[in-house]
Design goal:
By secondary structure, the chain is of the alpha/beta class. The protein has two domains: about 190 residues, Rossmann fold; about 170 residues, 3-Layer(aba) Sandwich (Rossmann fold), CATH 3.40.50. It contains 14 helices and 13 strands.
């Protein structure tokens, strides 16, 4: 531990990948946005970003990097690196703190650890995950969090889940919300029309944006959409194919919706704002979420939104979205119909959604995270 100079925080970013797939969304967005803002709020701290084959955006590269010679792109090699090599790296760096931003840290480390938990869906709904993912997260998340000095939960709902399911004392669990990038904003009609023409998008469509996987409840969304009496409205399920998505495509075919349900695949981060602005309604009716960042992004773009009324999504949506129980297909259909046809409701939700989203920023996420860094380091040094 480096008592004679500014404390050093090691940040494990090995989950980042150069692939244009679902692996570049979700937790990866949290890592990149946090690293982008840490230097602006972290006076008195030094950082080293631990990387595998992933790349940081240019504006994040001002942070020192330590790149592994081991190819950790493969999940099993990444796990072995985290558990076998990272403890040695931390000792070599004389790190004062490790931030493990994705559920799991090394079972042994020479410095205190902070672990971020994004959700515990793999414990609540193990049937939604492949066996390998379920075993890894189920076996190591609880141990990592109980051994960590502090746990970051991305919502109050997730904080309660960490306490209940992982038996981590509540005083060690800290809620720090995600932020929303200022690039998510309403665009001009000219930009939106040009984008629709460029992508050959339908004039009216409902948008879902996220990984295609069972937890997102997309089969129910497709069924609810099929009951809409809106023949000119399409459904776009945008996002990388994750896992266990075969039932989704089978349902689209069973309902004969191939001409009205579109799956354009993974959307690069720089195109997200255009997609949100081009849509008429955003639908995010997940069975389980730890926060629900796409809801916040949609609201920041002024897009009328239907979100689940359960888990963390009421926190992400605030009073800026319409909600429906994820298991109630009739309620989902009714919510979509209202958002498509009630102009007064759309205008009201747009105003409330923009105001709600404005309360969240990645700079604030970074500021609260750095406050926790300092608290943990100070406590450890006193011991």
């Amino acid at each position: 531990m480096s008592f004679d100079q500014q404390p050093l925080v090691a940040f494990n970013a090995h989950l980042l990948t150069p692939e244009a797939s679902y692996r570049s969304a979700g937790v990866a967005a949290y890592i990149v946005n946090l690293l982008r803002h840490l230097p602006d709020v972290g006076d008195g701290l030094r950082y080293t970003v631990l990387l595998g084959q992933g790349r940081l955006p240019e504006e994040v590269c001002r942070l020192p990097e330590l790149r592994s010679m081991i190819v950790t792109r493969h999940p099993m090699l990444r796990i072995l690196w985290e558990q076998m090599v990272m403890p040695w790296v931390l000792r070599h760096l004389h790190a004062d703190l490790l931030h493990a931003p994705a559920f799991v840290g090394p079972l042994y480390a020479s410095c205190p650890q902070i672990v971020t938990v994004h959700d515990l869906s793999f414990l609540r709904y193990p049937q939604f995950f492949r066996r390998g993912n379920r075993f890894y997260l189920g076996a190591l998340t609880g141990i990592s969090c109980r051994r960590a000095t502090a746990v970051i939960a991305v919502s109050d709902f997730t904080a309660r889940e960490v306490t209940t399911l992982l038996r981590v004392p509540r005083e060690r669990v800290h809620t720090i919300y995600h932020g929303v990038d200022p690039n998510f904003t309403p665009l001009s009609t000219t930009e939106v029309v040009r984008f629709r023409q460029e992508m050959q998008l339908p004039e009216r469509f409902i948008l879902y944006l996220g990984t295609l996987e069972p937890r997102k409840n997309l089969v129910s969304l497709v069924r609810a959409f099929s009951n809409l009496y809106e023949p000119d409205v399409h459904l776009v399920l945008a996002g990388g194919r994750g896992w266990l998505y075969e039932d989704l495509f089978a349902e689209i075919e069973r309902l004969n919706l191939q001409d009205r349900v579109h799956c354009p695949g993974y959307i690069p981060a720089e195109k997200l704002t255009l997609w949100y602005n081009a849509a008429e309604v955003f639908a995010y009716i997940s069975t389980y979420e730890g926060f629900g960042l796409p809801v916040l992004e949609a609201l920041a773009c002024g897009l009328p939104t239907l979100a689940s009324s359960t888990t963390s999504l009421p926190e992400a949506a605030g009073d800026g979205a319409l909600t429906a129980p994820p298991a109630d297909a009739d309620a989902i259909t009714g919510g979509l119909h209202r958002l498509l046809n009630d102009a007064d409701l759309r205008a009201s939700l747009r105003a409330r959604g923009l105001a709600h989203a404005a309360r969240f920023s990645w700079a604030e996420t970074a500021r609260h995270t750095v406050e926790l860094y300092r608290q943990v380091i100070a406590s450890y040094r006193q011991d």
